[in-house]
Amino acid sequence: MSVVHNREGDAAFDITWPWTDGPLPPGLTCVFRVKNEARNLPWVLPPMFEAVQHVVLVDNGSDDGTAEVAREVVERIGATDRFTQTSYPFAVARAGDEHLHTPPDSVHSLTYFYNWSFAQVRTAYSMKWDGDMVLTREGVELLRDLSWQLRGSGAVVAIPRHPMTVESESVAWLDLGFRFLEPWVYPMGPEFTFVKAFEWEVREFPPTSERIVAPEGMCVELKWLDQDEFAHWSSTDFDAVRTPRKAREIEVFRALSEGRGESVEGLRRVEAPAGEHVIDYVTRTWMATAPRPLVKRPDTVEA
Description:
Elements: E1 3-4, E2 15-16, E3 28-34, H1 41-51, E4 54-59, H2 66-76, E5 83-87, H3 97-100, H4 110-118, E6 125-129, E7 133-135, H5 137-149, E8 156-166, E9 171-175, E10 179-187, E11 194-196, E12 201-203, E13 211-213, E14 219-224, H6 244-257, E15 267-271, H7 278-289, E16 300-302
Parallel strand pairs: 3-4, 3-6, 4-5, 8-13, 8-14, 10-16
Antiparallel strand pairs: 1-2, 6-10, 7-14, 8-9, 8-10, 9-15, 11-12
């Protein structure tokens, strides 16, 4: 189906898939769906523009200046010709029960929102990325190489990420107790769209697709100890079997909030040198020199 209509009948936000007019040109486009990520974008956007050919940023009702910060960063690094910024003005159901009870063809559905966002892509490959995920130098190099190696392969790429809770400008905690692994890079096409799952959206891909797993150390997922990291969930009563990733995240957050990070297996305290922000230190220096494997335990959590 080349066009997907929403149940609200808002034709301005129907989904028109870009492959309707023929094959898409080679390249990798990163798609950000963001809400209130102004704090993170100065770290998130610059390395991404080094790694991919184009960036699409879809703002979903931010009230912290996210859209303005994004434009300022992109102008500062001279990447306006490779940047598409747009907005999605509807309240989107939060992950969990709200998502479960929202029809997938509604403009308020996570599934519809994601499909609409990815319909803005104009290259043969796209990458889902979050507004709090920062590429390391190794991550930049990997994606830069993949952008041409994937051409015509039909492969999907899973990239491990390492949650990092920022305590202060100089101190952060890296969760190296679990291996968080999720497919992020996909071809564009009718077999690679988003469908509704119980707690969130899931991007489909054919079982015959080659799956490439990137090495550890490619990116960190920023979390801030002074910020509610679970506002986009309708409930924080996470089931360790159904949603192990979120159960781990809230375990770590509570431990750090209570000042007992050392008691959680796999949490690593990192302190940056004087004068250097801990995010810069981890992504530019620490991650590159840390012994492998980073995650010592066999646990793997896949989204």
